[in-house]
Amino acid sequence: MLISETTRDVVLATALTGIAVGLVLSIAYKSPRKPRRRFKGAEICMRYPDQYVCLVDIVRPPLRNPEIITARVVGHGTTHDAAFDPIRDLGERYPRFAIRYTGVPTEPLIRPSLVFDDETLALLAEPLKRATLARR
Fold it and tell me: Which of 37, 77, 75 is nearest to 59 (CA)?
């Protein structure tokens, strides 16, 4: 059975359109979408337990407080890199972000420790006195 040239063209055009639509949908599916809603810090920990999360649009309390009031989650995973991968190439879209671990850390935090004994205080006292006198 032979089909007409017009029918063949329509079938070919339909097939090409289907391929193009499928390609567009797969690209759209793979591209990171904008996070829809904000979560409170506790909600983030409950939704993504013991995972690294990549956060954007972070609302923080006043200075010197590490808590997060609300944020949008754009990536998560068992490693730091897995959480960051969804926005790795989106520096212009997400110029400010933070990656946090939602579980209890298994390694001790490294913090500098200073020991002030009488000898160290005596060394610091002289420059502090000069700075105070210079301001007057």
Answer: 37
